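User: I'm writing a short report section on ligand binding and want a predicted complex to refer to. Could you take this sequence and phosphoric acid mono(formamide)ester and write out the structure as tokens? A short remark afterwards would be nice.
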Amino acid sequence: MLKHLLQISDLKRTEIESLILLAESLQLNPPEMNEDRKALVGLLFYENSTRTRLSFELAAHISGIKTVNLDINTSSVKKDESISDTIQTLGAMGIQSFVIRHPESYMLEKLVSTLGEQFHFINAGDGQHAHPTQALLDMLTIHQYKKNFAQLRVGILGDSLHSRVAKSDIVALQLLGCRDIRLIGPKEWLLSITDSSMASVKTYQDIKALEGLDVIITLRVQKERIGDFSDNTDNMNSLNHYTQQYQLTTERLKYAQSDAIVMHPGPINRGVEIASEVADGSQAVILKQVSNGILMRTAIFESLNLS
Ligand code: CP
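Assistant: Sure. The structure tokens for the complex follow:
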């Protein structure tokens, strides 16, 4: 049983498959509410969140785990308390497990190296590095609609360079046997594929690479990680170019299979990376991903041996 969940590559294929099966079974048979359960989980979100934070809270409620949600903006973090001191302070109050979102990549690895014996850590998104629980709920969603990962053609459309979701999805898709993963987007926002462990991944600057896809994962343009978007900057030009050339519109969606599903981790920027009629259309499973977030995070709480 895992003590921490930092990134998808910490998991074996069979563990991902077990989490998917458990999440699916929880839909039919939620766990018995255990009032005696002692686990307390601290939610520390150093970056904004709606879906991840609330679904962890709801998942904890389903699992009979109590949560303490530290409001970073009104906490002593604003008096320069370090994250490690904050964790040890909450530890002294009896909290042994933490769900953490942080703007710095690999922050969770750092915490595990110093405090990992004492505490459990779950990564709720660290910088541009990883968002493993999002990838797991994405795999659950794909499994519900498409079944056989080995046969799937999956496109990841947009700003894969700055996206922790894209990076975690790629690792999860490969582990589950997917052999055709296409990163599609402008050169400056495409993740470069230098690693031989990414053998199933190819990059494309032509939107026609949507041709024949079964799954399209649309990404938000990560403005907060790209930099200044005030008028007349190169970034603003890049954004306008992106919207014109790569926004997922009804016309462009026709390149994909007629039964392709359209995913997006959220929050969506309507009219930027995705047209409203696609986001609200019959092929979109974006809100299903949100609901699946509760199931998958409940499965994660049930699978970790939290104290
Ligand atoms: N997908 C995702 O991480 O959404 P939030 O930022 O709302 O948690």
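A remark for your report: Residues 286-303 form the longest helix (18 residues). The chain has a mean pLDDT of 93.
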